[in-house]
Amino acid sequence: MKNIYSKILVLAIGSLMVSCAGNPYAPTNRAHKKQTNALSKELKVLPPPAPGTSAMFKYADNWVGTTNFNLRRPNLVVIHHTAQDSVGQTLKTFTLERTQVSSHYVIGKNGEIYHMLNDLYRAWHGGSGQWGSNTDINSASIGIELDNNGFDEFSPVQIASLLELLEDLKTKYKIPAANFIGHSDIAPTRKNDPNRTFPWKLLAKKGYGLWYDESITAIVKPLEDSSFSSQVATTELHTILNDSANVTTIEVAKEAILDVSPAVALKIIGYDVTDLPAAIKAFKLHFIQTEVDSTLTDYDLKVLNNLYKKYL
User: Which domains does the chain have, with CATH numbers?
Assistant: First the structure.
């Protein structure tokens, strides 16, 4: 009997060694598990830690724990390209503490999906950015990185895997179609991913993101010089958004000011228009893709006029 137990122990140790040897990320997986355990302990502290000291003397003597709660859920999906040479390089980048960057998912060119972080944890993928009024994108989103150097087209099998993953995420978390966006959308002054070859139209057709009606025929009223002045639009936008005396101004802007103020339409879609040329460029990277610059042509204006209403 003793010999049997000894053999079982040897086999168990051998299996463990083979498992560790077969997974080059075993050390970082252990670090991941350690951090997960630390966060779990923090959540289990009862009563929960107070947010600060200002109101500490106003707290009741007895803590009362509610019975009605669950975990917070992500409400945005942000898609990136890795801008690196291989999926292996990206996985290494995301497992080094000094890089301070991560993502929930990485998808290789061959369609293989690496799930690097529980969807309910906060990954460090968005950095400084804004979408609508949300200025903490990481806390509300799931980050997906596609293995791509930033210039190549995305492989069909990679996009097929992405679509399957998006279906799972949309179903599980009930994420609205409009909330599937790109890194450049939330950080127009810093980022240009995913690149201009990314198939946003295909994603929108499947229900992940919005797209304009390609059958639009209405002519957008051109400005006097048939071009768009970012300075004029910026001034008008500030007037609209800062007009606290007239809360209906923005409603008027939706119908009457759009032709002379595309900045308002961009703001309604979700773009941060503090740097208006950058916001226009990000819009064109996502929806136009042929001429990615800060100039809005008549066609671009038609697209914007049709599209912003879908985000209302």
Answer: 76-206 (3.40.80.10), 230-311 (no CATH)
Q: Which two tokens stand for residue 139?
A: 């806390």
Closest CA to 280 of 235, 233, 245: 233
**Pairing mode of beta strands 113-115, 76-81:** unpaired
Q: Which of 77, 104, 105 is nearest to 171 (CA)?
A: 77
Q: How far apart are the first and last CA of the chain?
A: 73
Q: Residues with catalytic annotation?
A: 145
The first and second tokens of residue 230, run together, are 């970012």
Which among 134, 108, 131 is positioned nearest to 182, based on CA atoms?
Answer: 131
Which pairs from 211-217 meet CB under 8 Å and 24+ separation? 211/287, 211/307, 212/287, 212/303, 212/306, 212/307, 212/310, 213/306, 216/302, 216/303, 216/305, 216/306
- pLDDT tens digits in sequence order for the chain, 312 residues long: 555 555 444 455 455 444 445 788 999 999 999 999 999 999 999 999 888 888 888 899 999 999 999 998 999 999 999 999 999 999 999 999 999 999 999 999 999 999 999 999 999 999 999 999 999 999 999 999 999 999 999 999 999 999 999 999 999 999 999 999 999 999 999 999 999 999 999 999 999 999 999 887 444 444 333 344 444 444 444 444 444 344 344 443 334 335 558 999 999 999 999 999 999 999 999 999 999 999 998 889 889 999 999 999
Which helix H or strand E contains 159, and what residues bound it? Answer: helix 156-173
